[in-house]
Amino acid sequence: KESYGSGQLVFHIFCDAKSIPNRDRAPTNSELISMFISTLTGQYSGSIVANHLQGICTWHIMHRLDWTHNDTEIEALLKATVTLAPTSSKCKPQELYTVTVLGPMHDNLDLTDPAGAAVFACLTTTFWYTAHVGEFTVPCLDSFNSSLHVKPSDITHKTDQGGLRVTNFHLPRMKLALLSKDVSWVQQQGPSDPQATLLNHITVNDPPLNGHLFAYKHKGSHHPLTKSKFTTTLSSVAKRAGIKPIQGHGVWISSTLKYLLCNVPFDVVKIKGHWVSDTFLVYLCHHTQILAPYIQVSPPFHT
């Protein structure tokens, strides 16, 4: 978000350094944009440069200014920013949670403790739904907004064509879009079963119907589950379990890997996880296992 919003500022700093007059900055021209991208190449990651460029484009659109450029040239330059990005800007493979790893996490959490029950229920829900943690947590204790954050009243239960019970959540707002969306998971086997952990959380914490879904009891009231509380609790539990703590979008990526290893097609996983690009492939490991079913002489599923 920061690199996207600062694109216009970085562009003006660049123009000032190159003594580009204001009249040539808006609407800008292809030569200037190409020069801007070339100047940033090798200094920032490809995604940051692309976000800066998108910020400039958005500003032009908002002010109804012409944005007509050589797309082929810009695309080639943006590819170069990825290739020549500094090593320090390149993402390392994420530490991932597998279903097997969730077992020790379960064993090292006190699920009778209000915060522990809420955190593990949130973890299993985000894992099996393939969600951003931020879609089921709040930024800070006083930031809960019933029109933006998921609530117990947003839960419904449906039955699919095979008679399988599906738990459905209505998210008032997605992380990558301002629109609401319904998401769901089904009961699983073992300690990572989201249905069992959610029921345990509701039993232990009894969150208010129109409060935060993963609110937990604290000194006679309820605290909404913040992302900070979620991550710090899991880090402590991982340390006790002898597991490396998960970072960033680790839960989201872990779930993506889980479904790919279950032979769910790439395009389906992409839709389920609301990936807007194929960038998740950068973080994934176990490529051999994922691709094996697709490269058989007679693949076991449709192509």
From TrEMBL:
Spell out the molecular function terms from Gene Ontology: DNA binding
Q: What is this protein called?
A: Unplaced genomic scaffold scaffold_2402, whole genome shotgun sequence
Which SUPFAM superfamilies does its entry note? DNA breaking-rejoining enzymes
Per its UniProt record, what InterPro entries does this chain match?
Answer: DNA_brk_join_enz
Q: In which organism is this protein found? A: Paxillus rubicundulus Ve08.2h10
Taxonomy, top ranks, is: Eukaryota, Fungi, Dikarya, Basidiomycota, Agaricomycotina
